[in-house]
# Entry
Amino acid sequence: MVTEGEAYLSITANHFWDSYLDSATVWCEFDDSTRIGGVSREAVMEKYGEYVRFLWNIPVKEALSSQYRLMNRLESAALQDSSVVPLFEYMCSLAEESLYGVNSDFRNEEFYIPVLETMIRTSLESSVTEEVMKEKYRKELECCSKNRIGEKAADFIFCTADGQNSRLYDVESDYILLFFSNPGCTACKEIIESVKSSDKISALIASGSLKVLNIYIDEDLAEWFKYMPVYPKEWINAYQPDLRVRKEEIYDVRAIPSLYILDADKRVVFKDVAPPAAFAFIEHISME
# Structure
């Protein structure tokens, strides 16, 4: 029996749904719209949130393994028994909301990829797999496949307020907090204040171990220059002169603000991560 540590978390995540999916009685009561697989939708939603927390606390490769195992089991069950299709659809909708929703604190495109691949591949007789929906999922998969965790981030040119051009790969630091922001954005201002108010993050910035690259990817430079006094002077505050990030979509900036964390080799540690998770990670590395 493994009862604690990383091994416990990994085993639990990988077998989290076994008791539910293995039950002979779960595929029932679909006539009741408040229940899914014989269990209340609220209970399944609550458990899915718990499951996602496990994914966040194990290595990425193991989290992906758990996701592929879950999606393969759901797809196989739904293909064998049409009464399972509503459960398949509901679990996919929970994944989209939790792992891809721009307002989710647990969004993680890496964990969403197995879900997208399954929905694109499956041939269930269901509205969720109609060709128009599959095209949507293909587009989402294309976006999620850019700048994946562990891969090198796409390089780009940026220009600071004094007219100096540079590139992402020219920035040298143990970690880079890549912050896509807009002037006047309320959520962006909250991130600025959170970083400034954290003694641990401020110490990392002061030591040079962490650099914040604050990037504006739109065209209204007058508004950006006007907002310059709001940005901390110790940050690299810049705009994207060729607009390549936005026009060529080399980064999947679905909403502003968007945060990425890169390591010294410009490999992606976190992609479009929610601010609480980003700050928790940065404060953790300050203690190493």
